[in-house]
Amino acid sequence: GESVGLHLPTLSVQEGDNSIINCAYSNSASDYFIWYKQESGKGPQFIIDIRSNMDKRQGQRVTVLLNKTVKHLSLQIAATQPGDSAVYFCAENKDNFNKFYFGSGTKLNVKP
Amino acid sequence: EPEVTQTPSHQVTQMGQEVILRCVPISNHLYFYWYRQILGQKVEFLVSFYNNEISEKSEIFDDQFSVERPDGSNFTLKIRSTKLEDSAMYFCASRSGPSTDTQYFGPGTRLTVL
Question: How far, in Å, CA of A51 to CA of A71, rounded?
Answer without folding.
Answer: 13
